[in-house]
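Our working data are protein records whose layout never changes between entries. Instead of coordinates, the fold is spelled out as a row of discrete tokens. Here is such a record, shown just as it appears in the course material:
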Amino acid sequence: MNIPANTLLGFLGGMALIVGVFLILTGTGIIKMEKVTVEKSKKTVLIGFILLLIGIGGLWTEISPLFSTIFIKENHSQTGSQQKVQSTQETTTLSPLTKEERIRELDGYTFELQECKREMEKATCYFQVISHDQDRPLRLHGIYQHRSRIFDEEGNEYWAVKVQIADKIGENHVDGLLIANLPIKVSISFNNVRREAKMITLMNVLFYTDLQYRNIPITE
């Protein structure tokens, strides 16, 4: 008789289990063997139960690692699923910046980020800037030291390639004159932005100082 077992204890347990079941069945008279003489008695049944328990104990050494492996795999699978769900939630819970977060008041200037719009493989962000109480110059930096840049959802970085203040356009930087209390259109463009990118997770724009904005939707 072939008893599949990886250890001696498991083999002996299997043998004890088989003999125990045999003694119980013959001791209770459920089965009869003509060529094998086994006393039909309570003693035989008792011995059979003892061997049965010993057999179960021995075979447990073979079975328990299987249960442990199954438990570990299920636990790992559940943990992996939870991590995926958590990762998905973290990715999808980026809230677009609010109206208040779009406006910055600095040194008599008001900078308002209006939108970032896709044009083919280019993304352009539009601002409205006001100089309060007096006429003042304003400089917007483009590729200068790559200080004006954006990042998408995957962390890809894009540098500014064109900047504009009213009708003044430049690449490295552009200078414009802001008339007191008159809103002026300002824009900054970035090339080769992925078509799949739907949000700018971080934008740094260098005027006379650095301005940072987060979670800006890219509109089509």
Notes: Confidence is low (pLDDT under 50) at residues 87-91. The longest helix spans residues 42-92.
